[in-house]
Amino acid sequence: METPFPPFEPNGPDDSARGPRLREIPFRLVFPNLITILAICAGLTGIRLAFENRYELAVAMVLLAAFLDGIDGRVARLMKATSKFGAQMDSLADIVNFGVAPALVVYVFALDQARSLGWIAALIYAIAAGLRLARFNVMAERENKASWQSEYFVGVPAPAGAMLVLLPVYLGFLGLATDRTFAYLSSIYTVAIAFLLISRLPVWSGKSEGNRLRRDLVLPMMLGVVLYVALLMSYTWEVMVFTVAAYLVSLPFGARRWRRKYGTLTIEEPGVGDDDIGRHI
């Protein structure tokens, strides 16, 4: 049916007023974003399961969210599907999966018995994770990056922080009594992990291209990975406790290596200066 009063266009139809035309988007550009969305769904589902007292599934979902959140960027680079939209989605997923979800799961499982102190500890961790991620994003946007950024993190990275902060939950699964004393100790531990996130401690990343593995160690390393995964599937919480302990023990060795190379115990190069805060908040 024709419009009774057609629009007045003396110079002909104006296509610009119709907005941008829709065009088909290759699936490879969408696939990494789908992984990010699945990661957010897993993290939020972990929170729900924790409030339903289904703690083992809750922790599994949080760890799955951390895994998915860790691979979406790599998948995007492999598929040549990186985009600004995907980067923003990934940042939003990071704060949910590495900050909010672990904090709420550990709070519901253990910290709530410490009352307000437990909630404060959970808040401190979640905020520290947000600050850690903001600092990482600011440093990643710099045009001139320092050479050490390919080899070291400034502070414990957020994915590792999510794994570390869940230690009280792992210990509870192994039969440790989750009484009020345990809640207070867990609160102190949670705050300590929060400070490791925002610290200037040099943490070895293992991403440097100069790190090469000797040919005779390739097969033993592959067998070691298979053994670790097999033990993780059979003795999940024991292996997670061991992994957390091994990671924490490795931190002083990374700082020692940095000191031998650069002469300081912490990374003195400013990660977020006044100008960065003014531009990015």
Report the mean per-residue pLDDT as an integer: 80
Large-scale geometry:
globular
Number of strands: 2
Q: Which topology of one domain does CATH recognise? A: Four Helix Bundle (Hemerythrin (Met), subunit A)
CATH-derived architecture of one domain: Up-down Bundle
**Radius of gyration, whole Å:** 23 Å
The percent range for strand residues is under 5%
Membrane topology: Multi-pass membrane protein
GO molecular function, one term: CDP-diacylglycerol-serine O-phosphatidyltransferase activity
Main location: membrane
Subcellular location: Endomembrane system
Description:
With 281 residues, the chain is an all-alpha fold. It has a domain at 27-207: Four Helix Bundle (Hemerythrin (Met), subunit A). Helices cover 66% and strands 2% of the residues. The protein has helices at 27-51, 55-78, 84-109, 116-140, 158-165, 167-173, 180-198, 218-234, 236-262, 274-280; strands at 152-154, 202-204. The protein has a two-stranded antiparallel ribbon with strand order 1-2. Helix 5 runs antiparallel to helix 7 (180-198). It is globular, with a radius of gyration of 23 Å. Residues 271-281 have low confidence and may be disordered.
